[in-house]
Amino acid sequence: MTDQNFSIRAEESADDPSDATARERMRRALDASGVGDVVRRELAGTIEEPVPDAHASWREVLGRIEGAQARSAETDREGRKGQVRAGWLGRRSLRRGTGSLTRIGLSASVLIALAATIIVGIQRQQIVRTGRPSAVFVRSYATRVAQRATVTLGDGSRVTLAPETRLRYSVDRTGAQLIELIGEGFFTVMPRTHRPFVVYTGAIATRVLGTAFDVRRYSTDLVTKVTVVSGRVTVGGHRQTAILNAGMIGRLTDSTASVSRTSDSTRDVEWTRGNLVFNRTPVPEMLTTLGRWCGYEFRLVDTTLLSRDVSIEFNVDDVVGTMNTLKALLGVTMTFEGNLVILRPERPQDTMSRRKLLRDAISHPLSEVGR
């Protein structure tokens, strides 16, 4: 098992790195409106003022249009005075010059309004298409088999990633932090009173202000599991929503939600220290998780074990100890073929030694919390 630390502070990335034109257009639009500086300060944790919204930008454009029209009118008045002094030929020349200035002023105003309309229109199309404002900062992280890592976000929040986990972190125009997660992550979120922090696992969204909580949903899972260690979160999908306080566990699908309480929610995040706790867990699910953490694929020869539920704890930082505990728990022998581990029923004479090894492996009683 390996640990890695990543840190992301004040760096920028386009939502789609392959689209250089879109990236440059978004950067220019942000710099022109002042949002670019705001986002950079937000990522450094120093933002205080709100980001200008579309309505404020439109009011600014209207002000520019009115100013241009006023300047054009003033130019017309000056032109008429010059016509009286300069005579018929001068009046004719000045009329042409004044008309050109007016057309230039109006053309500039129209271009400004059109540019603002295009920018707002693009943003509205993105919100309608995705349901979320377009991101102006994006980073992606992934862990491999038998690897866990810690990511530090721009505001000081931290995420510990379990093996085979993918995380996409983005900040939108309003400064909201959005996480898309496949796998498992333990989040310690800095208190935020005015800017959302949202974790998406498929159709399930977990919204927080400041708390510590665990979210688990791998691509093969049907349920999103959320465990709150401290603080409070709101979690839900299209049809179901639940509010979870410290010591509560939520299990949600796209259409259902269930909530339970536990006396020790920290047991469910022991994996951040290399300890996996299973409580009444089906054997196939346990073997899949152990394979992810230890870097092996387990194959059972005795299919009767597939229907068993187990309660046990493994220290996966000790791979040899984990294998011995697994052998004692299931009563099997192990044959290694590369990364494949074949589990076969043990001989009857090995039963007594297996029971002794299993007693030694369980060092303390299990809580209500488990994988």
Extract low-pLDDT stretches: 7-18, 33-58, 88-95, 106-130, 363-369
Strand content is 25-35%
Mean pLDDT: 74
Find the CATH topology of the largest domain. Jelly Rolls
Tell how many strands the DSSP assignment holds. 19
Structural class: alpha+beta
Mind describing the biggest β-sheet? 14 strands, mixed
Can you give the helix content as a percent range?
25-40%
Report, as a whole number of angstroms, the end-to-end distance. Answer: 19 Å
Q: Label the overall shape.
A: elongated
Order of helices and strands: EHHHEEEEEEEEEEEEEEHEEHEEH
CATH architecture of the largest domain: Sandwich
CATH class of the largest domain: Mainly Beta
Total DSSP helices: 6
How many domains, as an integer? 3
What's the gyration radius in Å?
Answer: 31 Å
Descriptors:
19 strands, alpha+beta, 32% strand, 371 residues, Jelly Rolls, 14-stranded mixed sheet, disordered C terminus, three-stranded mixed sheet, Phage tail protein beta-alpha-beta fold, 6 helices
